[in-house]
Amino acid sequence: MTRFDLSTEGIVLNSIKYGDYDQIATLFTKEVGVIKLMIKGGLSLRRKMNAPLSPLTRAQILCTSGRGELYLCKEVMPLERYHSDTLSFPQLEACCHLAQAIQQSQPLEKPDPDLYQLLHIFLKATLQHHNSDTWVCSFLLKILNHEGMLGDLSYCAACHDPLSTTYALQGEGYCQTHAPPMAVCLSSEEIAVLNKLTHTRHLQELAATLIPTSLLQKTMALFKASIGR
């Protein structure tokens, strides 16, 4: 297989130590999608070219394709960190949930510049606002909608009756009679909030929206069932 060089911007989703001084980072890049990057000497104090990359960092990288799925880092320059000592624990946890959602939903090397930009915007917004559950909930729903995994939850997928209470699973809504096992029960008020969080494009509207923790937990259950990872 012919090797090629790649210069791109990426957001570090996670990183692990490899050997004594090396590092393998998983990045969501603008041009290539999710990649795994080997950073030789990234954890060595003596080597300055390749600084260690911590999760929730946006960086410019120059790398070359290697064997299999692993890219080999030539140069890396951190551009921005989505974490600081002033972050509250809920904000940091929310940023981690956003990164994890990308890892769970995106296969390796599937370019998606729009989703990359959405992740960047939501990470920045999570740093600036304290309604962390809202940003996580909206991001998960937007991924499902973006991937075509979120249908109309106002009608039963089996009998097509309108729903006042929805039993949702894998992006479909059901009535109580046709509800499959493990379906998430949602009231009409909760469905209205989920629709708002899915489709609104205005950050100020999201910043002013507060949701109960129970709704985030239900959304995370829907996401997990739909992604299947």
Task: Provide tags for this entry.
three-stranded antiparallel beta sheet, 6 helices, five-stranded mixed beta barrel, alpha+beta, about 230 residues, single chain
Can you walk me through this structure?
The protein is 35% helix and 27% strand. Helix 1 packs antiparallel against helix 2 (113-128) and helix 3 packs across helix 4 (188-199). It has a five-stranded mixed β-barrel. It has a three-stranded antiparallel β-sheet with strand order 7-6-8. A hairpin with a 2-residue loop joins strand 6 and strand 7 (172-174). It has 229 residues and is α+β, with helices and mostly antiparallel strands. The mean pLDDT is 91. It folds into two domains: 5-81, Nucleic acid-binding proteins (OB fold (Dihydrolipoamide Acetyltransferase, E2P)), CATH 2.40.50; 129-227, no CATH class. It is built from six helices and eight strands.
Could you outline the blueprint of secondary structure elements for this entry?
Elements: E1 5-18, E2 22-29, E3 33-39, E4 57-65, E5 70-81, H1 89-105, H2 113-128, H3 132-146, E6 165-169, E7 172-174, E8 184-187, H4 188-199, H5 203-207, H6 213-227
Parallel strand pairs: 3-5
Antiparallel strand pairs: 1-2, 1-4, 2-3, 4-5, 6-7, 6-8
What is the number of beta strands? 8
The H-and-E topology, N to C, reads as EEEEEHHHEEEHHH
> Percent of residues in beta strands?
25-35%
Low-confidence stretches: none
Radius of gyration based on Cα positions: 20 Å
Shape by Cα distribution: elongated
Question: Into which percent range does the helicity of residues fall?
Answer: 25-40%
Main β-sheet description: 5 strands, mixed, barrel
Domains, number: 2
Strand neighbour order, sheet with most strands = 1-2-3-5-4
Number of helices: 6
Distance between the termini: 30 Å
How much is the average pLDDT?
91
Tell me the structural class: alpha+beta
